[in-house]
Each structure stands twice: as structure tokens, then as C-alpha cells.
């Protein structure tokens, strides 16, 4: 029994070392990607009720030295913990504004909007408002085309701080979307106080809508609520024609999902 205990301790300490080593390796890869141009933005189309592409969400990808792709689900949490999300997020803002400028210069794509994901930690950097203003100036974009996606986790401590900061950025002309709506705890009270323009129904509800009556009820409630608050709704993760139909019937206005297009590098982007 004593040996069993010792083996167990060794097993756990080896497992923990493996976790620590994997995290350290991932952090190194992120630093290398920052230094050596290893990040890419992929663009996923968003469509209106008529099936027209009205814009895109920019989704980051990381490529390591071997050219292996690392998905954001695997590295964003560590980037947030280590603070690397701040320079990574600045790169996203910069790259997205350059792309938006390219679209706005071309008549056929001039009306497209571009959404970027911003982590709470990046949003609350003291100079974040200035960084957004500077990027808009530098790239000479019409700011109405830029949208920032935040999750509820952006509210840290005092809600007024978040409201104030959002107002400062809205004053620049940039719009806000509340991402992953329905997955958090305080959605309703936050929704009333934070100046969002749009909400995104989490893909979990869209996925379960047909087979699960409570998900369908949640989708319906979100759509009714957003109409009364004058918010546009984007349904995320639309994968089937049946989901699309149901969402159209329920009055949803904007759609995003594999049914219409996966996130692709800009070379593969062809809208309309
Ligand atoms: P998210 O913002 O909720 O993005 C939507 C995710 O759903 C994306 O995963 C997208 O590829 C995926 N998706 C889109 N349509 C479908 C569909 O029809 N079916 C399914 N199953 N999935 C679909 P992705 O690109 O792996 O990104 C994961 C998360 O990583 C994002 O979730 C976002 O939270 C974060 N992320 C991505 N890019 C950035 C970034 O530039 N900055 C920050 N801070 N976070 C980012
Ligand atoms: Ca998003
Ligand atoms: Ca989402
Ligand atoms: Ca998400």
C-alpha cells in the first residue's frame, strides 16, 4: 500500500510536470508567432435575411515554426493568463483595420462590416480607446464598418467603468456586439446597461434548437427581447438549412455558420 501511494504521487507529479511543460511550450510558440509573423486572421461571412454577405468576423489562427496550426480555443486562454493577449490583440486590431480599409476602397466591398474579438484584459488596458482611435486614423477607415465583439466577462468589478469605456469607443463610431449571448449568468441585467448594438446567440442554442424545446424557447426569447431593446441578433453556428429556416421564421436578422462559409484566409475570401 505504501508503494501504491508513492506510485500515485509520482504519477501525479509527472502528469503535472507534463502540463507545465506543455503550457511553457505553447507560451514559447505564441512569443515566436508574435516575433515571426505567425498569426493569421481568417474571415467568416455574416449574411442578412436575403442571403447577402454583409460582413465578416475575423478569427485568429496561430502557426508554429513547423507550419502547424494552433486553434484559438487552445491558445487564447493561456494568452489571457500571460498577458500576451494584449500584443496579440493589438496585432488583430491592426490587421483587421488594414483589411477593412482595403474593402472600403473597393466599391463592391465598401459596405462590408468587420467584427473583431476583444478580450476583457485587452479592453481594459488604459490606452485601449487611444489604440482604437489611432488605428482608425492610421488606416483612414470609416469607423462604422468596425465592430467589436465582447463577452459578458468584459465587466470586471464596477460596471460603470465598462459602460464609460464603451461609450468612448462608440463616440468614435465603432459598434459593439455581445458575443456568446445566453451562456453567462447576468446577461439580462448587463444587456440593459451596456450600450451594445447587436447580440450573438451562442451556437450551443442554435445547435440544440431542433431537438431540444428549451433551446428553441431560449432562441425565441432572445429574439423577442432584442426586438424590444432594438438590438440586432446574429445567430452563430448555423450548420443546416433547417436551422436557418427556423431562425428566419423566428425573425432572426443575421446569420453566421458553416452552412454559409467557414472561416477562410483572405486569399480565399470571395463575397457576394
Ligand atoms: P467565437 O468568437 O464564439 O467564434 C465563433 C467560433 O465558432 C469560431 O471558432 C468559428 O470558427 C466557429 N464556428 C463558426 N461557424 C460554426 C459552425 O457552423 N459550427 C461550428 N461548430 N463552429 C462554428 P474559432 O475560430 O476556433 O474561435 C474560437 C474562439 O476563440 C472564438 O469564439 C473567440 O472566443 C476566440 N477568438 C478567436 N479569434 C480571436 C481573437 O482575435 N481575439 C480574441 N480575444 N479571441 C479570439
Ligand atoms: Ca466572436
Ligand atoms: Ca460566439
Ligand atoms: Ca465563444
UniProtKB/TrEMBL annotation:
Q: Which domain of life is it from?
A: Bacteria
Q: Specify whether Cell inner membrane is a keyword of the entry.
A: no
Q: Where is the EAL domain?
A: 23-272
Q: Which UniProt keywords apply?
A: Membrane, Transmembrane, Transmembrane helix
What name goes with this protein? Answer: Diguanylate cyclase/phosphodiesterase with PAS/PAC sensor(S)
Species name: Thauera aminoaromatica
> Which part of the entire protein is covered?
731 to 1002 of 1002
Amino acid at each position: 500500500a505504501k508503494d501504491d501511494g508513492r506510485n500515485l504521487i509520482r504519477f501525479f507529479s509527472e502528469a503535472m510536470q507534463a502540463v507545465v511543460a506543455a503550457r511553457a511550450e505553447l507560451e514559447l510558440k505564441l512569443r515566436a508567432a508574435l516575433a515571426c509573423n505567425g498569426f493569421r486572421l481568417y474571415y467568416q461571412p455574416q449574411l442578412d435575411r436575403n442571403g447577402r454577405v454583409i460582413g465578416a468576423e475575423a478569427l485568429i489562427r496561430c502557426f508554429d515554426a513547423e507550419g502547424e496550426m494552433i486553434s484559438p480555443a487552445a491558445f487564447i486562454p493561456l494568452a489571457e493568463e500571460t498577458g500576451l493577449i494584449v500584443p496579440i490583440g493589438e496585432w488583430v486590431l491592426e490587421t483587421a483595420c488594414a483589411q477593412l480599409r482595403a474593402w472600403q476602397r473597393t466599391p463592391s466591398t465598401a459596405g462590408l462590416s468587420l467584427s473583431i474579438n476583444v478580450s476583457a484584459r485587452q479592453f481594459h488596458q488604459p490606452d485601449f480607446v487611444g489604440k482604437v482611435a489611432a488605428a482608425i486614423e492610421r488606416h483612414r477607415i470609416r469607423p462604422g464598418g468596425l465592430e467589436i465583439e465582447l463577452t459578458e466577462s468584459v465587466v470586471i468589478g464596477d460596471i460603470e467603468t465598462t459602460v464609460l469605456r464603451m461609450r468612448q469607443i462608440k463616440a468614435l463610431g465603432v459598434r459593439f456586439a455581445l458575443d456568446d449571448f445566453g451562456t453567462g449568468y447576468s446577461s439580462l441585467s448587463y444587456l440593459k446597461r451596456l450600450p451594445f448594438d447587436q447580440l450573438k446567440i451562442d451556437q450551443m442554442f442554435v445547435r440544440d434548437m431542433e431537438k431540444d424545446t428549451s433551446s428553441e424557447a431560449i432562441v425565441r426569447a432572445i429574439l423577442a427581447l432584442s426586438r424590444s431593446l432594438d438590438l440586432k441578433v446574429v445567430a452563430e453556428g448555423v450548420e443546416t438549412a433547417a436551422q436557418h429556416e427556423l431562425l428566419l421564421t423566428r425573425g432572426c436578422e443575421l446569420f453566421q455558420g458553416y452552412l454559409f462559409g467557414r472561416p477562410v484566409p483572405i486569399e480565399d475570401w470571395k463575397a457576394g
